[in-house]
Amino acid sequence: MNRHRLAAALVFAALALPLAPHAARAGEGGAGPAPSDSAADAAKIERGRYLVTFGGCNDCHTPWKMGENGPEPDMTRMLSGHPQEMSVPPAPKLSDGYWIGGVGATNTAWSGPWGVSFPRNLTPDKETGLGSWTEKEFIATLRHGRQRGIGREILPPMPWPAYGQATDEDLAAIFAYLRSIPAISNRVPDPLPPTP
User: What count of other Cβ atoms lies within 10 Å of the Cβ of residue 65?
Assistant: First the structure.
């Protein structure tokens, strides 16, 4: 009989173990995130990953390389922008009419009437990426077409007017995802002015 009680007590204790950390946190005045917060954060990051993937952010913000089947994004430098070590020639002289073209082998430099623009580093690196940005600044950038909502204009081909139509929740999810990826130190150059 004692063995049955001991077995029942062990089963009960094993079933209660997963509840113990949550109960302890709740008893400590809410210290630490509740499991639902973790699930919500994970869902937000996953939504951001989906939007970044679906939105084609890697097409411009990830340097391309030659792969076995032709050009492909270099995911070891995912979303790190134009490589700082790669120089780009001055903007080409434009013919009449509006046009846009890629400059360079990595697909991370774009030329048009504005000069040459470079996709920025979207990784959470504090010095060269978005690591020091707030969610509010990120959303303002895509709403107003200016860095951090008040700085330099965002240049083509960045489709900020389209991204600016997204909900605050979706833009916050994109930012959460970008904060979750590996930080890559890569200082993207400033835009080049148009050729006179």
Answer: 15
Asked whether the beta carbons of 180 and 172 are under 8 A apart, the reply is no
Cβ–Cβ under 8 Å, residues 46 and 143 = no
pLDDT in tens, 167-192: 999 999 999 999 999 999 999 999 98
The DSSP call for residue 95 is P
Q: In the structure encoding, which two tokens stand for residue 169, read together?
A: 């929740």
CA distances from 178 to 9, 29, 58 (A): 46, 31, 12
Q: Which residue ranges make up each domain of the chain?
A: 35-180
pTM score, whole prediction: 0.77
Task: Check residue 74 and give its pLDDT.
Answer: 96
- Cβ–Cβ < 8 Å for 110, 103: yes
DSSP-assigned letters across all residues of 30-93:
S-S--HHHHHHHHHHHHHHHHHHHHTTHHHHHS-EEEETTEEEE-GGGTT--S-TT---PPPPP
In the chain, the amino acid numbered 34 is A
